[in-house]
Amino acid sequence: MAFGKKDHLIGLDIGSGSIKAAEIVETKHGGTLKNFGMIDIAHGAIEEGTINNPETVAESLQQLFKSSGFNENNVAVSIGGYSVIVKKIVVQTMAEEQLQETIHFEAEQYIPFDISDVNLDFQILGESESNPNQMNVFLVAAKKEMLDDYINLMNLAGLNPCIIDVESFALQNSFEASYDAQNQDVALIDIGASKTSLNILKNAASVFMRDVSLGCGQINQKIMSLIECSFEEAEQLKYGNTPDKLSPDDLKGIVSSVVADWCTEIRRALDFFYSTYPDDQIKRIILSGGGANIAEFRKLLATEASTEVEIINPFQNFHIENKKLDDAFIKQVAPQAAICMGLAMRKVGDK
Ligand SMILES: Nc1ncnc2c1ncn2[C@@H]1O[C@H](COP(=O)(O)OP(=O)(O)OP(=O)(O)O)[C@@H](O)[C@H]1O
Ligand SMILES: [Mg+2]
Predict the structure, then answer these.
(1) Ion ligand 2 — residues with CB under 5 Å?
(2) For a Cys staple, 83 with which of 143, 228, 244, 328, CB 3.0–4.6 Å?
(3) How confident is the model over 302-318, as pLDDT tens digits?
């Protein structure tokens, strides 16, 4: 048991809508959620993973740490969006050290940016299904500028970024801690405020990943173009509590058209998967992110994809120790907490 062991860190998911933070420790009950907190950030300060306004975001981070009572500086953060590229590639079988040396050469053809502008990382997945002399490799490329921006942001907020992970990996990590994905195909879909990530797992291994620029902010944009209002006002109006300003019919029309758009894009990704694995059937879609809360979306997706659609519960295998985190609150934040929980499970010194 690891009482008092100081290798744990705080998982930080810095989204364009809000920052989510979680802290997990080992206790006699096993993995224990010690703390969780969330804070909204000013609209526009972060867009699709790019930090436009570091001072504002750093202030929100400090405020979150103070108001939620986090007192650890070591953090694991994640990056996502179009500046991060995750791709499964096939290369000649070789040792990890050798691939380390040649990865730049291998990667060049897959990266739409200048190779000298990116940091590369990879993970060997195993022998290729079609050729025993080749192996599957997950290639991860992130713009150096973006990594620098995240490191600067952490420094500005007085935090120590021990791990910078990829959002989709963190989500997968979170899913694996709470679900058994052996012998089935599962799609993990995170719909945030400005981006959506899709990850299809076959027998618990990822075979397809894609990030697209869709998100709940589209609802705000449509409200703003229908009635003149700010993004923040639209954020209030979208919950339907002010029918005198935005009629229930208009709101319903907007939500329906946005979720139909999401379902089209998701169908496209699933069709791509089925064209590679024609004998497979994805039976479960697990949703996370704020978009998972939209019932109409879950219903439409279940029909269109002919699958079960459920909302992730990243807390289900964790003991909860903090009295502030009651059942109702935990249930409400569960879909948005998935990524930061996946990050909070990492340890100082992990690769
Ligand atoms: N019940 C709901 N109905 C409609 N929208 C909702 C609901 N709950 C949350 N949202 C929306 O979800 C979004 C926030 O989700 P999330 O926290 O996953 O995004 P984020 O991580 O901050 O953004 P991103 O990952 O895209 O940068 C907001 O746009 C919010 O309005
Ligand atoms: Mg997000």
Answers:
(1) 15, 192
(2) 143
(3) 999 999 999 999 999 99
Question: Residue 50 pairs with which residues in a beta bridge?
Answer: 47
Model confidence pLDDT, tens digit, residues 150-179: 999 999 999 999 999 999 999 999 999 999
pLDDT, one tens digit per residue, over 175-232 is 999 998 888 999 999 999 999 999 999 988 888 888 899 999 999 999 999 999 999 9
* Distance (Å) from CA 302 to ligand 1 centroid: 20
Class of domain 10-222+233-344: alpha beta
Residue 2 has pLDDT above 50, yes or no: no
Q: What mean pLDDT, rounded, does the chain reach?
A: 94
Name 273's Cβ contacts closer than 8 Å, sequence gap at least 6: 185, 187, 200, 207, 208, 280, 282
Query: Ligand 1: which residues within 6 Å by Cβ?
Result: 15-18, 192-195, 215-217, 235, 238, 289-291, 293-294, 336
Which atom of ligand 1 is closest in space to residue 289's alpha carbon? 18
Report the C-alpha dihedral over residues 216, 217, 219, 220, rounded to 10 degrees: 140
Q: Which atom of ligand 1 is nearest to the CA of 255?
A: 4
Q: How far is the CA of 193 from the centre of ligand 1 (A)?
A: 4
Of all helices (H) and strands (E), which one includes residue 62? Answer: helix 54-68
DSSP string, 162-201: EEEEEHHHHHHHHHHHH---TTSEEEEEEE-SS-EEEEEE
Q: Whose CA is nearest to atom 4 of ligand 1?
A: 294
